[in-house]
Amino acid sequence: MTDDQIGVDETRKLLVLDDDEPFRNRLVRAMEKRGFSVTGAGSVAEGLEAVKAEPPAYAVLDMRLTDGSGLDVVTALRDANPDARIIMLTGYGNIATAVAAVKAGAVDYLPKPADADAVAAALLDHAEALPPPPDNPMSADRVRWEHIQRVFEQCGRNVSETARRLRMHRRTLQRILNKHAPRG
């Protein structure tokens, strides 16, 4: 056993699934320091393989991956270990994806980049109370911009279809899409 693994509790097996390799590696190391036995995966296929090999008690899953959705792994994990505590991470925070994640079996939903303390707290907090408010929540302008970007991506980057679904004039949408993301 190495010095980094001292204090690792084998009942605290954690799967970290994220296709952003630097972020995943940092989170894996940080969670190991917090006493978790961590397996990292970079794709839905790797995540499903890890769940089949040894179903973890905890999971931190990215919502959008290059080969699919973290929701696919939630379903497999729920089948393998119904008591697993699952946290979804996403860079596209919106109500629809949060609802989908919770319906699939996630216990919490955190925006990326999430720090290891927030992830550990969400995984280990078994109380049904609401989590504390974020220290730096996104501004209303940023939330609006993120929502528009998400719908735009879901519509295959089709401006006309996105404008129709958002009930917005096409030119207005084009102006918004040409701007940089608001701060905060």
From TrEMBL:
Modified sites of kind 4-aspartylphosphate: 62
Keyword Phosphoprotein: yes
Xref: InterPro entries: ActR_PrrA_rreg (IPR047772), Bact_response_regulator (IPR050595), CheY-like_superfamily (IPR011006), HTH_Fis (IPR002197), Sig_transdc_resp-reg_receiver (IPR001789)
Keyword Phosphoprotein belongs to the record: yes
Domain (Response regulatory): residue spans on this chain: 13-127
Keywords: Phosphoprotein
Any one GO molecular function term: sequence-specific DNA binding
Pfam families xref list: HTH_8, Response_reg
Signal peptide: none
GO terms under biological process: phosphorelay signal transduction system
Name of the molecule in the record: ActR/PrrA/RegA family redox response regulator transcription factor
